[in-house]
Predict the 3D structure of the following.
Amino acid sequence: MNFRKDFPIFEQHPKLVYLDSAATSQKPKAVLEALQNYYVSMNANIHRSAHFLAEKATIAYEATRQTVADFIGAKYKHEIVFTRNATESINLVARSWGEAFLKTGDEVLLSKLEHHSNLVPWLQVKEKIGIQIKYLDIDEAGQLIFEESQITKKTKFISLTGMSNSLGIITDLKPIIAKAHEVGAKVLVDACQLAVHSPIGVQELDADFLVFSAHKLYGPTGVGILYGKSDLLEKMPAFLGGGEMIQQVFEDHFIPGDLPSKFEAGTPNIAGVVAFKAAIDYINSIGFEAIQTKEMRLAEHALEKFKTLPYLSLIGPQEIENRGSIISFTMNAVHPHDIAEGLSQKQICIRAGHHCTQPLMDYWKLPATARVSFAFYNEMEEVDGLVEGLEDVYNYFNSF
Amino acid sequence: MDIYAQNILDRYKKPYYKKNEMGRGAKSCVTNGVSSFFLSHKEANHSCGDVVEIGIEFEDGRVKEYQFSGNGCAISMASADMLGDVIEEMTEGDILNLTKDELYQVLGIEISVRRSKCALLPLLAIQNGILQHQKKTLKSWKDYHI
């Protein structure tokens, strides 16, 4: 099925081949209409004003919370906290849970695959209270190398990606989470990429925390999601202070509000949250089975074609198994920026750089890679166009 | 396909000043009344992995020899090479006074916002090399208003 017609940007740019959905997705018409509809028909501040518009806005905002809870299989709606982005969600956990429950010498386990947003907040906790940070290694395909002995009594927190934004590998988290819980460690799953490509069940996965962002999931920018188990969120101190997150404020102290408002200080991105519901409804109307089938066909076709170009090197997984529709590669003697610049002239948008995974790039001894990421609105002809574009770029730089 | 202007491509493919190894040159010496010194400095664009190290030998206060080494995209490497033409015979002060627009003019192509750091990395490297030599505060990207 062709979904391109659902995305108005392709009307503005009919020749656009958008292969950078892992950075941010394009937005379906339903989301854009929901954004406008919010401002036109119910714009008001939520949870406070006692008038009918505020009532309407609050109901719409809270409806998204329920939709998100259902989307990831959360037990309770109040386990969903809205933030600005997934980065803020991880920072919230690192600062609030980390600073309350970690002590000097405790270990936090990360992996070489992690995005900077799942590294720096923990490095900041390290700077502050002197925790030890350890890393799971990866094999040549980019999969985590995990041995149970890597999780010890000292391990208090584990924060891992569910799918690498640089390599596309889908990590095998269940055995890690099981072992973590044996020693009483908590686990955060960075599901920014995974949530786009696969259904998630937080209870089945038994993740303690899980984060993702709306804008990669066909929703607006400026909305992040934090899922946390109710009992953990209850015990955590508030993160940002201000309006909405309190029960009572006195001159010398305050009493934080209940979940989830305890973690939602200040006026949130109401329009963005309201419109995110339209994105999830849209995804649900298509279904993950259809989305995955389409995306994996695109990725498989691209992998097959890439392997016929002798000057391309795939970085990370070489095969279609255990991966999402993200492919990283390099081209002999052509810098990734120059590849992206050449393709951009043909209105083919790809990403070039370190993809916010500098330790991973160091591990591979690469300064940068080129990365294509497919969404279900891409078509097989676009993969063919990409391959022709890559051939042109190579010939251009090697023609004299 | 025509990604870059021919001059950029030429200098990327066949640079005049690029060395595989950075020479260390003469360190602050006076020979027959002529004073000379060599400075080198490296800068990197961590976001794209481009690295440029420049080396300059000054004699009697003016550039006698320029060289660079590095890795990067066509624009950063061509810019590093063309910078060698620009600074010929310049003093330290002349180099510090160079603006991004003067370098863009020499490159002769329109530099998009997304490629401005590629084009200006060699300028940052050379100006910081001199500032470091003069024991002054180094520049950062905010000083180039990009």
User: Anything to note?
Assistant: DSSP finds 14 helices and 15 strands in chain A. Residues 4-19+287-397 of chain A form a domain with the Aspartate Aminotransferase, domain 1 fold (CATH 3.90.1150.10). The first strand of chain A starts at residue 17 and ends at 18.
